[in-house]
Structure prediction request, 146 residues.
Amino acid sequence: MNRRAGFTLVEMIVAMGILVVGVSSILGLLTFGAALQRTAESRNDVALAAAAVIEDLRVNTFPLSADGVVGAPASMSFERDVPGHPKLTAYVDLRESPDREGEYFATVRIGWKERGKRRAETFRTILQREVPFDRRVEAEIKRAKK
Prediction:
């Protein structure tokens, strides 16, 4: 009885081919997953930057005069860098509501460059013409010291 143990050359080549296809599929999925993660991180950074810009607009857009009257914004459209996000730029456009006095529609467009292409996300909110309480208190303290 002549018994041969082991695999033939054809079986080994087929097994290696199946292994190569499986490994290359897994590597493709890993690359795709990494690209999705980069995109998600980028969009998260943009959303956080937009929230910071909108909060800054709420606090600093409307001037408070010496007699305590809240004025209209100095500029209705402007571009600025986003603090803490050196690769992002914010484009802000304010429009006064035609229906309600003291309401402004704010459009904040955050732009950045990703893989050589310009990208942008747009966020919209409504701002009330008002000054935060702490700024009013600071103005009252300054006025009382004079």
